[in-house]
Amino acid sequence: MDRLLSRFSHLLWSVFVRNIFLLSPMLDFMQDNIGELDVERQVEQKARRREQEEEKEKGLKSAILFGSSDTYDSILALEEKVSCIYPLDFEEARAIFLVGQNYVNEAKEYFEMDGHVTDHIEVLQDHSALFKALSFFEEDCERRCKMHKRRIDMLEPICLDLNAQYYLLICRQLQFELAETYYEMMDLKLVVANKQDELDAHTIKKFNHLCMSSIKYYKMFLDSVKTPDGKFPDKLEDDVLRPALVAKFRIARLYSRIISPDSGKQLENLNKSLECYCFVVEYCERNPEAKKAVETELELSEEMSGLLPLKIERLKMKMVSSN
Asked: What residues pair up with 31 in beta bridges, in sequence order?
């Protein structure tokens, strides 16, 4: 009975983490149009928070007046353990994160990999999601990168060891999340690099590593949706439609971001990028119902499919003239 109760409590916590904190609409609400923390909205919500706290203080005074302060204090103590108020800044998010991480670590001890594969991986995914949600509130790009690196360190070994023949869905989830995490790190490193006057060899190597690692896992995900003879299906299943097209779109962007002094390598990467952009465009032309799933990616793919050939031709002419 104790084991059943323990299992039930951990699963309840998993649901709590997902629904209350990680998947809460507050994270979407606090984003600006490029997915970063909207500072003006943050200030507005903090002002509203102060008003709510003043109302709570009035409630406390009323409870004391009518002799129910003990009950009020008991409820307040439970609320403070995991607040029902959505976080507005890093410190508030971190407080919730630490409580969540404590429960996740307990769950990891109970759901060991040996004997509880699916449950153990689900707990790791929860832990990763906690770091992802926390990183949203962190303003320093380097610290955000370190949080994403923690996610990679906990998920990558599992992903590489897991047998896709028996755990296909989980493998796909891990592959896509790892690709996405490397992709986010690449974007953050790009922000940092743009602030530097000149990139050193170490920074370029690190940046290219992030690009290639993201490409690697996106390709692993795409390979998992291919037919047994290794061909891409003419029509993707609904559950993999958007992820697969997003993967192709991001691979295109990643290839165009790789830094290389070799003109031949630059040309090769631009051609690979163009191929992936064209894939998204052509797939949506063959399957018009897919357009709604990737409206933004399709629009950008159409634009890049027109621009990249010109860039490729200019690079070819430059290579000819230099020879």
From this structure: 37
The predicted model gives 261-275 an average pLDDT of: 95
**pLDDT of residue 18 exceeding 50:** no
Rounded distance between C-alpha atoms, residue 101 and residue 118, angstroms:
19
Q: How many CB atoms lie within 10 A of CB 128?
A: 24
CB distance 270 to 312 below 8 Å: yes
Instruction: State pTM to two decimals.
Output: 0.80
In the chain, % of residues over pLDDT 90? 55
Q: Report H helices in the chain.
A: 2-16, 25-29, 39-65, 69-81, 90-110, 117-137, 141-161, 168-194, 201-224, 238-257, 263-286, 295-322
Closest CA to 251 of 302, 305, 213: 213
Cα–Cα dist 323/319, whole Å: 6
What phi and psi, each to the nearest 5 degrees, are found at residue 68? -115, 25
The tokens for 246 are 């997003």
Given a contact cutoff of 8 angstroms between Cβ atoms, the answer to whether 292 and 249 are in contact is no
Q: Residues 17, 126: contact at Cβ < 8 Å?
A: yes
Of the pLDDT bands very low, low, confident and very high (cuts 50, 70, 90), residue 305 is very high
Buried b / exposed e along 292-312 (16+ C-beta atoms within 10 A): ebbeebbebbeebbeebeebb
**Residue 104 CB coordination number (10 Å):** 21
> Could you give the 3-state DSSP secondary structure of residue 32?
coil
User: Strand pairing partners for 37?
Assistant: 31
